[in-house]
Amino acid sequence: MHVRAQADRKEQWRADLRVCHEILRNGSKSFVAASRLLPKRLHDGTAALYAFCRVADDAVDLGSDVRAAIVRLHERLDRIYAGQPENEAVDRAFCNVVEVYGIPQAIPRALIEGFEWDAERRSYASQQDLEAYCARVASTVGVMMTLLFGERSPGLLARACDLGLAMQLTNICRDVGEDARAGRVYLPLDWLAEAGVDASELLARPTTSPALASVVKRVLALADTCYRRADRGMAHYPYDCRLGVRGARLIYAEIGRVVAKNGYDSVSTRAYTSKARKLFLLVRALPVLLRPRRVNNEPPHPEVKFLVDAVENAKRGERAFR
Fold this sequence. Notes:
Blueprint (H helix, E strand, L loop, with lengths): L1 H24 L3 H7 L7 H19 L4 H16 L7 H13 L4 H14 L7 H22 L5 H21 L1 H6 L7 H7 L3 H6 L5 H22 L10 H20 L13 H10 L20 H17 L1
């Protein structure tokens, strides 16, 4: 009977993973391209993590009642962390991941908060406010992926958070027109005002202008600063994970390069990266394998510190329990 139960659990796990891998294949092309460079030992965990993030985002973004969707997600998350996930493939798979890799609940909880801000169509008054949003929707993923890699040092988690900030800022610059047509403005309102851009006018009539382009350029410069901070942690990642991380970094940064090439106009055109260019960038990532491993102990950026602290507090709790 016990052997049969074990066999059933294994079959259920395989079936759940098939669902997660299908969600990943149909998701972000850039994420898929980079994830293929990760070691085979991480493929299932990465698929389960991505699937949960994707399903959670869709539940909020596509639902008719945002508040009810958020409450429901937190209920599902509570059950996952209680070891009693709902009868959903993604929930069961993510439950296994958080248990095996020790992901603190505060991390996916912050991610859900970011999805809630999206659904509320929040705007961000300042750079600091925008970075707080990026920390929730992107740096959280960087933290969880780093934990999947088997790394928990504050210095590396801080650099993973920097990479998340950079990627999300790049996405925001790519999607200015698309977001405005959907009733959203993510560019810092004070930067828009300084440039003479009326945010309400941008929402009413999304059009490009030299003033708007100057703000996009400024946000991309901020992203570049975050990429450079993230680069200082590349040699700290496990050897077999470096290529995937570096590849993702180069692919996302390339989006910003294309936006710049288009005159920082992401309203009338949308930047994209061809498969051939992605392949070239992945080849360019190869030298990261030659770097000697070294630790980075720079402190985290203020807006992501709470994520790094959540992992550190979880470690302290485990030590106290022992």
